[in-house]
Amino acid sequence: MIYFYKLKGIGMIQTPHLSTDGIIKLYDENDSFLGIIFIERLNKPFGIALPGGFVDIGESVESALIREMKEETNLDVEIEELLNIYSDPKRDPRFHTASAVYICKAKGKPKALDDAKDIFIYKLEEIPFEKLVFDHCKIVNDFLEVTKL
Amino acid sequence: MIYFYKLKGIGMIQTPHLSTDGIIKLYDENDSFLGIIFIERLNKPFGIALPGGFVDIGESVESALIREMKEETNLDVEIEELLNIYSDPKRDPRFHTASAVYICKAKGKPKALDDAKDIFIYKLEEIPFEKLVFDHCKIVNDFLEVTKL
Fold it and tell me: Longest Cα pair distance anywhere in chain A, in angstroms?
């Protein structure tokens, strides 16, 4: 796969990496809210994070979100809405990543898989903001401002 | 700038190109709505499009939007809200591009610059849907569903 394109008038194109993260609202069989899903990261940067990952070439952002949530948490999520796209160049210590963050919901038992070392279900008042990596503290706060939970 | 990263556990990362497009609502000095800005593209694919362009590494999507609107239309836009992110792998005939589309507003006299061969101000009922390139027909229809204009 060639990644650099020379186009008339615009030269070489390099853009930030595109990722997607999910704020998964977990419900039980009786539609009672159990909490938000977080993972402990297996790879650097270490810490607690929303589940997420990179968008592959050839898949939509929504498809990537559903795939990543399944790969990391074993949950089949239903997307509710796009919260925002977070693209501060310094938000990811590795390189410039822009993340499309979706609010979604799921039922079932989460299981830590793939890039997730462990998995947690936090009630809103239990979220450990001080342990969150990247800009997930800001993302979760933005979510708390709009959610009706 | 190195574009391929080998990270423990995730291998080489390649993601879609990230772009941003603006739906610019143009107003006159008395705050009367004049129309939506479209450009005639100077480069392939030829046709009528919303103004937009690629996000550079090191700038946020919002900064890229403001820069691109200035470069193509000479307008200083104020972002109102993110409409959506459009990422169907087939939406751009050149390669896979995901575009964050923002609704914004501006005053002043637009001028075709950079990638814009010509510039148009269309009232909502004048938009030439049959001439729009990429998936801008869908994007504009999504906008028309949510706008209060």
Answer: 57
CB-side neighbour CA atoms (13 Å) of A117 = 11
- The CA distance from A95 to A46, in Å, is 15
Contacts of A60 in chain B (CB under 8 A): 87-89
DSSP letter (8 states) at residue A42: S
**Interatomic CA distance for residues B88 and B86, integer angstroms:** 6
Task: Give the tens place of pLDDT for each residue, B87-107.
Answer: 999 999 999 999 999 999 999
- Does residue B15 belong to the interface with chain A, where contact is any CB pair within 8 Å? yes
In a mutational test of the A interface, the residue from B15, B66, B86 whose CB has the highest number of chain A CBs within 10 Å is: B15
Res A61: pLDDT: 98
The stretches of chain B forming alpha helices (DSSP H) are: 61-73, 136-146
ipTM of this complex > 0.95?
no
Q: Do B62 and A87 touch (CB under 8 A)?
A: yes
Alpha helix ranges (H) inside chain A = 61-73, 136-146
Report helix, strand or coil for B45.
coil
Instruction: HSE, CB side, 13 Å, CA atoms: give it for residue B59.
Output: 17
Cα(A9)–Cα(B131) distance, integer angstroms:
22
Of B7, B15, B61, the CB nearest to A55: B15
Find out whether A30 and A147 touch, Cβ atoms under 8 Å: no
CB atoms within 10 A of CB A65: 26
Contacts with A84 from chain B: Cβ below 8 Å: 82
Instruction: Please indicate whether, in this complex, the C-beta atoms of A96 and B58 are within 8 angstroms of each other.
Output: yes
